[in-house]
Specification:
Elements lengths: L48 H12 L4 H15 L12 H28 L25 H29 L12 H26 L2 H12 L14 H8 L12 H18 L5 E4 L2 E5 L3 H9 L11 H4 L8 H12 L1
Antiparallel strand pairs: 1-2
Amino acid sequence: MATPSSPSSINRTRNPAPDGDKPKAKSEWNYHPPIPIDNNPLFSWPIRWKDTLVYYRDSWLVISEGTIFILFAVLSWHFLSPDITATQNLHWSWIGGIWLRNFLILLGVAGVLHYYFFARQQQGTELKYVPSFMSKGSRFLFNNQLLDNMCYALISGVLIWSAFEVLMFWAMGNGYVNIITFQDHPIWFVLALPLIFIWIAFHFYCVHRLLHVKFLYDWVHALHHRNIATGPFSGVSMHPVEHLFYFSSVLIHLIVPTHPVHIIFHLYSLSLGAVFGHTGFDALLVKNKKRLAIGHFHHQLHHRFFDCNYGSVDMPWDKWFGTFHDGSPNAMNRIRSTRKL
C-alpha cells in the first residue's frame, strides 16, 4: 500500500534521529537518512519537547508536503470545486469537474516529479535510496513499469479517489455532515489539519496490515509491491480494491464536523503524499542544498523488506506492535529472526 503523507501521508520523519548505530552495510542503499530513523517525537516517553517542536515546525511552518497540500486544497476549493449547494443532486457537471481536477493534479504533480527525477535525471542518483530507476518486464502491464503505474494510478486511482470526494460533497450538500467555518471555529479548523495526519496514520496501519494477510496480499496488494524501485506514479498504483481500502479513511468526516477544505486536504494527503513518498529521493536539491523533503525512507524500508513499517512515522504504531524497522543492522536481525519463527 502506498504511504500517504502521513500520510499522506505519509513516512515523514524529517528530523535526524538521536545518534545511534550507523549501518555497516553501506551497499544496502545508494543513500539513506541518518540511521536509526525515528517516529514522531510527540509520542516518545518522556516526550522530547524540543524535537517535537522542530518536527511540527518542519511539517507546517516551512515549505513541506503539509503546507503544499494546504495551499492546493484552498486553491482547489475556491477555484476548482462546486458550491456545496450545487452538490445536493448528483449531476455529471460537478462530478466530472471533480474527476477532471483530480486527474490533472495527479498527472501534473507526478508527471513533473517523474520528468525531473527520472526522465531528465536532473539530480542523478544524488539522495536516491536505490540506484535503479524505472523497470521493464512481464510483471508489469505493457512490460513497462511507468505505463503500468500510470494506468492504475490515473484510471482506477483517480476514479475511486474522486468517488469518495463526490460522496463527501453530496453528504455535505444534503446536510448529512455538519460543516464548520474558520470564522466560527478557528482553533478546530486549524487543529484538524495535523489531526488528519494522525487519523490517516492509524487507518493506514490497520488497512495495510490487513492487506498483508496472505489471501488479500496475493489477490490485491501484490500488485503494488511489484514496485521495488519506486517512482512517483507508483504511489497510487494499486489494485482497485486497495484503492477502496486506502481512500476510505476520508469517511471519518461523516462523523467529525469539518470543512470541504479539510476533505480535499485529506485526499491530497493520501494521493499526492503517496506520490511524493514513492519518488525514491530523500529530498529535492537546489544549489546542492536540500530544499524540500519528499522521500519516505520509512516506507522505502517496507518496499525493501515487506513485513515491517506498515504505518507511517506520524504515529508509532509499528513500534507498539513490534513491526518497526529503523534501518539499523539490529532491526534487520530482529526482522530476520521473526521470519524464522
